Structure formats: C-alpha cells, structure tokens
Amino acid sequence: MEEQRKHNDGKNKYSIIVPTYNERLNIALLVYLVFKHLPDVDFEMIIVDDGSPDGTQDVVKKLQEVYGEDRILLRARPKKLGLGTAYVHGLKHCSGNYVVIMDADLSHHPKYLPSFIKKQMETGASIVTGTRYVKGGGVHGWTLMRKLTSRGANVLAQTLLWPGVSDLTGSFRLYRKSVLEDVISSCVSKGYVFQMEMIVRASRKGYHIEEVPITFVDRVYGTSKLGGSEIVEYLKGLMYLLVTT
Ligand SMILES: Nc1nc2c(ncn2[C@@H]2O[C@H](COP(=O)(O)OP(=O)(O)O[C@H]3O[C@H](CO)[C@@H](O)[C@H](O)[C@@H]3O)[C@@H](O)[C@H]2O)c(=O)[nH]1
Ligand SMILES: [Mg+2]
Predict the structure, then answer these.
(1) Predicted confidence (pLDDT) per residue in 50-70, tens digit
(2) What is the position in ligand 1's atom list of the atom closest to the CA of 218?
(3) What is the value of ipTM here, to two decimals?
(4) Residue 8 located in a structural domain
(5) I want to staple 218 with a disulfide (CB 3.0 to 4.6 A). Which of 134, 141, 162, 183 is the partner?
(6) How far is the CA of 103 from the centre of ligand 1 (A)?
C-alpha cells in the first residue's frame, strides 16, 4: 500500500464499474472488500443494475447510506439489456481517469485490485487485463463443460485473431478512461462477447496492454447469466471481427 501511495501522488481516480443482475447476496461483500483492499486509493464504484427482481438495488441504496453516494453510485436501467451495454452506460457516469471493470459475484476478487494499479503505474500501460491463463492464474469451481467452453472460446479467438493477450474473454480489467472511451466507441457487441471484442480492437489499435494473473473462483451465491445464446453470439462476434479487423 505504501508503494501504491508513493506512485499515486494523489492524482489518479479509479472508477469501478460493476454490472449487476440479481446480485443481492454478493454486492455488499464485494463493496466491503473493495474498500478493504483499496484503503489509500481515490475511487468510486458505479453499480449498473438492470432492474434485478431480487432487490439488488435496495441493498445498493443501503450501501450508499453507509459509504456515501459519492463513493457508491447507482446507475440503474429498467431491464436486462446485456453486459456490454451495461459497461457503456456505466462509463458515462465515471469521474475517474482510470476505469476498472469487474463482476459483482466475487469471481473477481478485490484483493487483486492493487496489482492492477501497480502494474499500470510500473509500465504506463493503457490497459491491464486479468488473466487466468498464465502462471499464477487459474479457475476454481467450474464444471468441465464450462472450462472447455472458456478454453475453446479463447483458443478459437487466439488462432483466428492473434491479439497477443492470453485471456480474451475475461472481464476483470483496468483501462485508462480515454482508451476505454475510444475502444468502446468502435465496439458493436452487446453481450458477453464484448470482452473479446474490446481486447481485440484495443490490440489492433496498438494500445499498450499488460496482464496480471488472477484466479477466477466460481460464484457461491446465485447463478451465471451466461447461456447458450451468448455462446452463439460469441461465435458470430468472432466471425465479424475476423472479417472486419
Ligand atoms: N447490468 C447487467 N449485469 C449483468 C447482465 N448479465 C450479467 N450481468 C452481471 O455481470 C457479471 C458477470 O455475470 P455472470 O453471470 O456471473 O458471468 P459468468 O458466467 O461468471 O462469466 C464471467 O466470466 C466470463 C469469462 O469466462 C466472462 O466472459 C464474463 O464477462 C464474466 O466475467 C455479474 O456481476 C452479473 O450480475 C446484464 O444483462 N446486465
Ligand atoms: Mg460469475
């Protein structure tokens, strides 16, 4: 932390975008852990909730009372409109010069946040992406089917698009805000395929991308929103990128 403070000199602000759909049981713990792991960092959390029927927003409003509306921003949408567009929406409300994107279900543990920040400061990278597919990273708790889906999605995209990044579908990332705005404006996908499109486009545009190892632990509460239709969308997105980039 001391190290972090030394490099920060008080100028950087991090906006952490967290998309939520039915994360009532996870969001409070996530917020608690982010505050715990970033004690000396200037940050805000932007929760983009898509009208979760489980009452996620009620929990977020309670958290705002505890932590303050300047630290926890609730930027809701009326219904489930997809992960990719949730980031676009969240970005409009960011006041930081750096943006972190992470899941609400604790699969992206906030303990890794300092390593993203440190890596960015050491290298001056425009993007730092968490990767499960290098030494020190990994996946816990997934079924064989889900592991194969993720590996398959990555191998396929690596082979066809060779972007030079080891984890294309992961969504735990830190961006320089201006870079995120630039890359996001050229992205067309709306669902889960968004992660892959973002990193491929960023790499094509020549942005400096660094990686930090993370271990992705499957959620304890609730269920994944990744369904068969998202996989079809992914394959379509892959083909689209293949012919357009
Ligand atoms: N606002 C909003 N949030 C959503 C939506 N769909 C999902 N989310 C939120 O997005 C996060 C990820 O959703 P999960 O359903 O937990 O995804 P996952 O199956 O665990 O997939 C994760 O790993 C994949 C890599 O293998 C990633 O590709 C994916 O983005 C995600 O990080 C969670 O915080 C969830 O509440 C949506 O339509 N709208
Ligand atoms: Mg998840």
Answers:
(1) 999 999 999 999 999 999 999
(2) 20
(3) 0.96
(4) no
(5) 141
(6) 6
What's the domain range around 150? 14-244
Q: What is the pLDDT of residues 231-245, one digit of tens each?
A: 888 888 888 888 888
Ligand 2: centre distance to CA 23 (Å)? 10
Nearest Cα to Cα of residue 130 among 89, 87, 165? 165
Q: Residue 134 maps to which CATH number?
A: 3.90.550.10
Which residues, judged by CB distance below 6 Å to any ligand atom, belong to the binding site of ligand 1? 19-21, 23, 48-50, 80-83, 86, 103-105, 107, 150, 169-171, 192, 195, 219, 224-226
What lies within 8 Å, CB to CB, of 86 at 6+ separation is 17, 19, 48, 50, 77
Closest CA to 230 of 161, 149, 167, 156: 149
* Local structure of 179: helix, strand or coil: helix
